[in-house]
Design a protein that fits this description.
The protein has 285 residues and is α/β, with parallel strands linked by helices. It has 2 domains: 1-41, no CATH class; 48-284, 3-Layer(aba) Sandwich (Rossmann fold). Helices cover 35% and strands 11% of the residues. It contains 11 helices and 6 strands. It has a 6-stranded mixed sheet with strand order 3-2-1-4-5-6, with helices on both faces. The radius of gyration is 20 Å and the shape is globular. The chain starts with 5 loop residues before the first helix and ends with a helix. 36% of the residues are buried.
Length: 285
Amino acid sequence: MSKISIPVLNLHNQAVELLKKESLNFCDREFIFDNYHEGAGQMNNLISAHFTPYSICRSLCQNITYTDCFVDLCAGIGMISYALKRYEEMSFNKPIFGICIEKCTEYYEVGKKLLPEFHWINGDCFDPEVIEQVKELMKGKKFSVISNPPYGNQVKTDSKELLKYTGSTFEYKAIELGAILGAYDGAFLIPQVSAPFRISGVRMHGKKVYEEEYKTKNYKKFVEQTGLEISHNNGYDTVFLEEGEAWRDVSIPTEIACLEYEELNYVAKQEPVQQIGLFDSLLSA
């Protein structure tokens, strides 16, 4: 990540000072979400975090069923969860129950301060203990999954025993995790090249939204191994951001990928059965 400017760093430092307050008001939260910079710390080169612009977060919210009950994977400081909170507040809907999972302790602490009403978990979302905790908290509930996960294979995770997908593309791993958790549906911000459709940045659709050429070898492998197929969103173009919004130090075409887990009948990977020999069984008798 490139070096941030002095004015941007000064705003980030003001956000850090606000986080020291015992409680935050609405204006405090807005300022921190706008100005807390992921590039100001030393960890970001390792975890490849890029906080999601708010207008994209809002569109993610509009592509899931259960906006009042959700799991936010790789939550960062909670921007998508905050958008869901505001969406529900302005819709006068019932209170939200949300779980935010974030591996980076710095972002976890910031997010927990910004959104204390949600249940925060500091850990790897592929950790079996984290998964069991989420399943226990969501037992008997219908819920959706949202995420802007790390992209590609820059971030490594130990998921070999957990996932059917054997590739290294992190966004596909996160999508399969949504099925493992038992979500009803999900919305994920992923690189455009990982999606089997094209909406963002296309001015004149000479082709169909779905074309066979959009399905990469890696995507076909993901579908073949998991049975999970990605659907397009409700038509949102991620290229168009609201005035004053921008990605920080990165520019990559993205799409909002939707998963209808309830309809896809995903079957989790089975634990290998250990064969017991005749001699072993006699010893244990």
